[in-house]
Amino acid sequence: MDLSGKRVLITGSTRGIGRCAAELFLAAGARVAVNGRTSASVAKAVAELRGQAVVAAPGDVSTETGCRQVVESALRDLGGLDCLVNNVGAYASTPMLNVTESDWDEAMNANVRSALLCAKAALPALRASKGSIVNVASFAALLAGPRPSFLYSVSKAGLLGLTRALAIETAANGVRVNCLCPGIVDTPGFGALIGASDSTFRETAVKVVPLGRLGKPRECASAMLYLASDDAAFFTASILVADGGTSTASGWIVGS
Are strands 176-182 and 132-136 parallel, antiparallel or unpaired? Predict the structure, then answer.
């Protein structure tokens, strides 16, 4: 896929699916702004990715000031923006009756507000380029459970609503907004979703995923590339699910 000349900001791109996406965008000819919470983590990722096509955009996107600074940094060093990938996310494991106001705010800030505020900061540039936004939610937005994932599911479902509403609002300006929902993917942080050890996590995944395995970061990152590409020019307000069939078939019910 050719993304030559595309200028892309990926939040949360120092590791996991976001890091893989940065690698694939660069390989496809795009210029990429890498984001992470700390300057040190971003500098390390930029050094490992190498090349003049990658720039650093460190900052905490859980705050409005942080979102604005990250986007402004990317715009300055990339000379504009063709795609914003809102990949940052955080998992919370708290039953509903134990949820505090602070718990709620933390999950919503990471999983919904960051996407809203980054999009708000980036929208003038995306209107100028008739670019696109790719939000990264989760299959947990489509089905409930497991029980500890209450806040994660609610906040990621909010991101689906944000995607659809923003897509309609920006369509007249030629800006597309779509959402990717990864399933159980083989990344360091995803085992927390079911609160299991690595071995138990993998055993469970084989039972609940119809394809019988964990997803690979590349299999999700490549979908981001497609949604950002000109080949997806008629895609907006779309929800693309990459979960091996889990949300359609068995969900979390082992052996169903």
Answer: parallel
Question: For residue 57, how far is the Cα from the chain centroid?
Answer: 16
Q: What's the pTM? A: 0.93
pLDDT digits 0-9 by tens, 6-59 = 999 999 999 999 999 999 999 999 999 999 999 999 999 999 998 889 999 999
From the centroid of its chain, how far is CA 51? Answer: 24
Which amino acid is residue 226, in one-letter code?
Y
Instruction: Establish how many alpha carbons lie within 13 A of residue 181's alpha carbon, considering only the half-sphere containing its beta carbon.
Output: 27
Contact present, 58 and 87 (Cβ < 8 Å): no
Kindly tell me the sign of the dihedral angle through the C-alpha atoms of 164, 166, 169, 175: negative
Residue whose token pair is 């369509």:
171
- CA proximity to 12, closest of 37, 43, 29, 44: 37
Bridge partners of 54, per DSSP, are 32
How many Cβ atoms from other residues are within 10 Å of residue 241's Cβ? Answer: 20
How many Å from the N-terminal Cα to the C-terminal Cα in the chain? Answer: 38
| Rounded distance between C-alpha atoms, residue 117 and residue 88, angstroms | 12
Could you state, in order of their start, the residue ranges of all structural domains in the chain?
7-241
Q: How far apart are CA 30 and CA 23, in angstroms?
A: 10
Q: Annotated active-site positions, please?
A: 152
Give the burial class of 13: count Cβ atoms within 10 A of its Cβ; 0-12 exposed, 13-18 middle, 19 or more buried.
buried
Of 3.40.50.80, 3.30.460.40, 1.10.275.10, 3.40.50.720, which CATH number belongs to 7-241? 3.40.50.720
